[in-house]
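Consider the tokenized backbone below.
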């Protein structure tokens, strides 16, 4: 299997309370569906957690923990990061190379930050990306609503052509892995 699923920042601080992402319960259900499909197909599943020096996502704090609704299995690889780009300062690229990964599926939080930045970096590194169109979210930003931001990123990322590899937005229910 040459595909890996990246589940980005589905952490308690972004799933509950003041920074709760829009429609996050259903987004997590869809991420769990995609993760089950990935595991069944033998794809590598990488669960990524952001950490910062601030209290919200400080390593080990309650907010840093993964959402209890997220289905994480012992076979999943856990990866800590400190930047919006999941590749920056992490072993993600070497992990993907060791596993012979040539294609990525991306989902998680937040659409305009870590999902966007990681997807763009993946393209720059030569990975075609399937973006789970209904498997990422964010919160309102005072200019746009969260649903608008997510839809905007589905459209914008799918229209990037300069890297060669492309982003294909696909709904969780329609996603086929290894088929």
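A designed sequence for it:
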């Amino acid at each position: 299997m040459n595909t890996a699923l990246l589940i980005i920042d589905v952490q308690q601080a972004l799933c509950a309370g003041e920074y709760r992402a829009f429609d996050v319960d259903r987004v997590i259900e869809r991420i769990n569906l995609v993760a089950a499909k990935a595991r069944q197909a033998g794809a590598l599943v990488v669960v990524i957690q952001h950490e910062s020096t601030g209290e919200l996502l400080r390593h080990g704090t309650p907010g840093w923990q993964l959402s209890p609704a997220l289905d994480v299995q012992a076979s999943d690889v856990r990866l800590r990061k400190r930047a919006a780009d999941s590749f920056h300062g992490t072993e993600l690229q070497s992990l993907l190379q060791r596993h012979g990964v040539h294609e990525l599926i991306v989902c998680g939080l937040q659409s305009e930050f870590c999902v966007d930045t990681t997807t763009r970096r993946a393209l720059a590194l030569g990975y075609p990306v399937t973006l789970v169109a209904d498997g990422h979210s964010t919160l309102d930003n005072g200019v746009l609503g969260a649903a608008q931001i997510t839809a905007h990123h589905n459209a914008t990322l799918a229209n990037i052509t300069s890297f060669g590899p492309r982003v294909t937005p696909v709904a969780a229910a329609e996603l086929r892995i290894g088929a």
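Strands lie at 3-8, 44-50, 77-81, 103-109, 129-137, 167-170.
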